[in-house]
Amino acid sequence: MLLSVLLLLLVCGSRAVHYYGTVTTYYPKEMTTDGSLLVNVRYKLSFVACTANDTWSCTGNCGSETADVELNVVDESPGEWCQREGVMTRLVAGTAPFQLLLEGENWITGIINSIVSWRAVTDAELSFRSDSNQINTSPVTTILPALRIPSNCPRNISLLAFDPDGDEVKCRNGITAAAECNPCTPPSVLNLSSSCTLSFSPTNSSNEGPYAVQLVMEDFPRQNINLLQPDGSLVQKTTNEAISKIPVQFVLKVDPAVPSCSEGVYLPRFLSPTPAHGAQILTSVNQTLEISIRAEAAQSTISGLLFSGPHNVMKNSQALGNFTLTWTPSNVESGESHPICFVVQSSFASSVYQSDLRCVTVKVGTLVPPIVPPSPQTNATTTPPPTSTSDPGPYYVIALNAKISTTLSLENDYNTILQMIKNELTDKGLPQNIILTIRRNGALEMTTAAP
Ligand SMILES: *[C@@H]1O[C@H](CO)[C@@H](O)[C@H](O)[C@H]1NC(C)=O
Ligand SMILES: *[C@@H]1O[C@H](CO)[C@@H](O)[C@H](O)[C@H]1NC(C)=O
Ligand SMILES: *[C@@H]1O[C@H](CO)[C@@H](O)[C@H](O)[C@H]1NC(C)=O
Ligand SMILES: *[C@@H]1O[C@H](CO)[C@@H](O)[C@H](O)[C@H]1NC(C)=O
Ligand SMILES: *[C@@H]1O[C@H](CO)[C@@H](O)[C@H](O)[C@H]1NC(C)=O
Ligand SMILES: *[C@@H]1O[C@H](CO)[C@@H](O)[C@H](O)[C@H]1NC(C)=O
Ligand SMILES: *[C@@H]1O[C@H](CO)[C@@H](O)[C@H](O)[C@H]1NC(C)=O
């Protein structure tokens, strides 16, 4: 008796943190004239409490953090979880890669696939790519800290898998031997397809409870590309080689059976005008975007909307089952694509039911056009600056006359030719971040990112 009381005290006294997962995305922002690169890493961190805390450690070309990271609440499921978002801005020297590691104690208790400690890894590849002449961006996704499925219902959970570079996005379970989680034992109740759909088949009550889902999402080029290394050499990435990787970790809760698996009975069903899963929405800086979400359930009561996305997305409920998510992107998000995922919950007696997971990608365009010089044939002196409400900064047009002889064809060897020209120009002292395009008529366009 005394022993069990002591044990209880020990458990209560330990600093259990109760982790509910993470997800990251990185965005290369701009390159300064000295070749330093500003990178934003946006991550979600989910725990039972909004006060719990952990920080990523960095290895590789880490540079320095330009400010302390502030964690801001995205959304809460009261008494269950709290998801927060951090934006880490790193100023790194050049385009060598870095790796981020999150490591700590204690997922929530009772995880059926026996995961205790959390561990997540992000690989940021910052090389210029030969296909776009741009720095690689990671896949864009997010996830709620917990998804619920009744044990007797089949369900496909289709994760958002978007890539701003147009790469193919694939998912796999983390690999213990690669130290991507600690350990990576996947839930026995889920089948994962490489296209990032998790399928759940009806099971019996002995499989009910919470599972830790520890996925790795990667971007693969759709055709072989070269990555320009900091030393000027090229490294090929084939269509079977991942460019970057991000963790997608959350809890799957297999709940007691529901009387009917049909959507709209106990499980909430989305109604128009809820956007379709995977929809891409275009908006602009300072323009308020409103996403209307409607759901119904005949035999249960709609109790709320839960979402994951940028922390300054506002959630409103007009009436039972009528919700809006409102977001006004700022200059910081200009040119970026941001994920928003949501579920609608309902309740009946003491049971809680969730709709399917729905996600959209919001691309933030900008009112300031990127600095794109006209083709070199145009007379520089007569070229008007781009029309814009704000000052786009210095604007230069440089004319270059060159004759290039090659046996390569512009049709088939476009990227190789472009890379060779770029190497030549950067050898002559032009910055690494120049972006080249060869026009049909043979004109060469050169752009640099805004300083
Ligand atoms: C984490 O908590 C520590 C103290 O508990 C605090 O100093 C630090 O600012 C917190 N970090 C974040 C990212 O909130
Ligand atoms: C899940 O996806 C598979 C393959 O596309 C399909 O055959 C099955 O009916 C889907 N299940 C549900 C519950 O939607
Ligand atoms: C996973 O897929 C295999 C083969 O299609 C099937 O036999 C198994 O029941 C599936 N498991 C789950 C949990 O859906
Ligand atoms: C439930 O399923 C598991 C396998 O997933 C099986 O071992 C067990 O016997 C089943 N229990 C019942 C009560 O059917
Ligand atoms: C957006 O609004 C902020 C603050 O009002 C302003 O500083 C910024 O220039 C605006 N950006 C654009 C692209 O309109
Ligand atoms: C929800 O919004 C729809 C239109 O989008 C409206 O027809 C409906 O009456 C609203 N429901 C409630 C309960 O206000
Ligand atoms: C460029 O300038 C020359 C002489 O000033 C003029 O003849 C020609 O038409 C101009 N070309 C364009 C595209 O404006």
Rg measurement, Å: 25 Å
Residues in helix, %: under 10%
Q: So what's the overall shape?
A: globular
Number of H- or I-type helical stretches: 2
**Which parts are unreliable, with pLDDT below 50 for 5 consecutive residues or more?**
1-14, 368-401
Overall residue-averaged pLDDT value: 85
Total DSSP E strands: 29
Q: Per DSSP, what share of the residues sits in E-state strands of 2 or more residues?
A: 35-45%
Largest sheet: 5 strands, antiparallel
Structural class: mainly beta
Each distinct ligand: 2-acetamido-2-deoxy-beta-D-glucopyranose
N- to C-terminal separation? 70 Å
Description:
This protein is mainly beta and 451 residues long. 6% of the residues lie in helices and 42% in strands. Strands 1, 2, 4, 5 and 6 form a five-stranded antiparallel sheet that branches. Strands 20, 22, 25, 26 and 27 form a five-stranded mixed sheet that branches. A four-stranded mixed sheet has the order 10-18-15-12, with no helix packed on it. Mean pLDDT is 85; it is low at 1-14 and 368-401. The structure holds 2-acetamido-2-deoxy-beta-D-glucopyranose (NAG) (7 copies).
